[in-house]
Amino acid sequence: MKNLSRVVKVTDGINKDGLNTLKVKGVDTIMSVVGLTDGIYDRAESIIETGKSIKSLGLKWCLKLGLLSMYQEVMSVTGADNRMFVRKSERGGFENVHKLFTKLSENAVLPDFIEIETEVFSELKDISLGFEEQTRMLNACINAVKAVAPECKIILSTKDSADNEKAKKWFNRFQVSGGKPFDIISLEYELDAETFYNLSINMSDLSRRFEAEILVDISAQGNVREADIGLEDLDSAIAIVPLDRGFGTVYSGTELDEATLVA
């Protein structure tokens, strides 16, 4: 059985001392959240510095791409015109991600993973997108990453952590619609005894069906110590995902300060 990955999600930046503390605690990957906007590559200094700090300590780096802000920028220009919105969003997604990753590459600080939220389209108001349109927009971002960093692994995240039918349907439709290959499925989850069995079933089924590793994201957990399912239980469930495809867990930095990780 391989060692499970320990990932910490950081939204407001973190200094080197903080990164060292996390490393000592057993964390091996830092996930930094970046809201993608038009021209972000010209304002990438803080992203570059974050990546350099993470890499200098021998930690892996995951860049979570927040696409909502960019799509909202596009909609402010196109309105609810689906055809124009999708066309501009595809182009904007590819160009901004490609230029950002090119700048990261020039500074020798490419991330090991990127994560994209699959539910981003449900947060767009006043527009209804077909699944093929959503797939085209996600593909544009994945293509841009792979054009610069072919070794970067793709994580697609979903809130449907305990609803196997719903999660399975989304990933099936993504593949049928021409969705680009991905490596890891991240399941956003809150520790709960009533849904824990459903989470386990979902992890096993999705890993086999889509040949993907499974990451469980508990970074939104209000208080890890008060949950009725412990981190030991979660580790055990991830560890037995078929074909050794249990990847690991995402924690928030705040909750991790008070949590005890299991070796």
Over all CA atoms, what is the radius of gyration? 18 Å
- Spans of at least 5 consecutive residues whose pLDDT stays below 50 are none
SSE run: EHEHEHHEHEHEHEHEH
Largest β-sheet summary = 8 strands, parallel, barrel
Distance between the termini: 13 Å
Strand line-up across the major sheet: 1-2-3-4-5-6-7-8
Which of globular, elongated, flat, extended, rod-shaped describes the shape?
A: globular
Oligomer: single chain
Q: Count of DSSP E strands?
A: 8
Overall SS class: alpha/beta
Beta fraction of the residues? 15-25%
Number of helices: 9
Q: Report mean pLDDT, rounded to a whole number.
A: 92
Helix content: 40-55%
Summarize this structure as a short list of keywords or feature phrases.
263 residues; alpha/beta
Strand-helix topology:
Elements: E1 5-10, H1 16-24, E2 29-35, H2 45-56, E3 60-66, H3 68-78, H4 82-106, E4 113-117, H5 131-148, E5 153-158, H6 164-176, E6 184-188, H7 196-210, E7 213-217, H8 231-239, E8 246-252, H9 253-256
Parallel strand pairs: 1-2, 1-8, 2-3, 3-4, 4-5, 5-6, 6-7, 7-8
Helix pairs in contact: 3-4, 4-5, 6-7
